[in-house]
Amino acid sequence: QVDLVESGGGLVQAGESLRLTCTASGRTVSSYNIGWFRQAPGKEREFVACIRRSTGRTYYADSVKGRFTISRDRATVYLLGDTVYLQMSDLKPEDTAVYYCTGGSDWPPRKNWGQGTQVTVSS
């Protein structure tokens, strides 16, 4: 079992930046890839970005490529936990959604989900 907790959401204006944090803990987290999905009102959940545990390889949705960056806090890599960031720049109103942190051995990871954090971008 892996626990995932998101933080850092909020209200910003278009063009501004925001950084989300995902804190993962649990006995199997050392083998987990970490990802971010989002769900806007009235829409299905969609993939945003993910990072592979073993290699640090990253993958992005086309809609956020060049604006969002997923990274891992290297200080926590070898601990029984993980901290992953999603740096979001040049935010647009269409980025408004609940953002979920995910973890799993699959790619992109979908096995475990956090509770989500709201990001609202005003125009």
SSE sequence, one letter per element: EEEEEEEEEEE
Structural class: mainly beta
User: How does the overall form come out from the CA principal axes?
Assistant: globular
**In angstroms, what separates the terminal alpha carbons?**
40 Å
Segments where pLDDT lies below 50 for 5+ residues? Answer: none
**Largest beta-sheet characterization:** 7 strands, mixed
DSSP summary, beta strand count:
11
Q: What's the rounded overall pLDDT mean?
A: 90
What fraction of the residues are assigned to beta strands by DSSP? over 45%
List the helices and strands and how they pair.
Layout: E1 2-7, E2 10-13, E3 18-26, E4 33-39, E5 46-51, E6 58-60, E7 68-72, E8 81-88, E9 97-104, E10 112-113, E11 117-122
Parallel strand pairs: 2-11
Antiparallel strand pairs: 1-3, 3-8, 4-5, 4-9, 5-6, 7-8, 9-10, 9-11
Short summary:
With 123 residues, the chain is mostly beta strands. The protein is 0% helix and 52% strand. The chain is built from no helices and eleven strands.
Question: Keyphrases for this structure?
Answer:
mainly beta; 4-stranded antiparallel β-sheet; 11 strands; 123 residues
Could you characterize the architecture of this molecule?
The model has no long low-confidence stretch (mean pLDDT 90). A hairpin with an 8-residue loop joins strand 7 (68-72) and strand 8 (81-88). It is built from no helices and eleven strands. 33% of the residues are buried. It is globular. The chain has strands at 2-7, 10-13, 18-26, 33-39, 46-51, 58-60, 68-72, 81-88, 97-104, 112-113, 117-122. The strands form two sheets. Strands 2, 4, 5, 6, 9, 10 and 11 form a seven-stranded mixed sheet that branches. Strands 1-3-8-7 form a four-stranded antiparallel sheet, with no helix packed on it. By secondary structure, it is an all-beta fold.
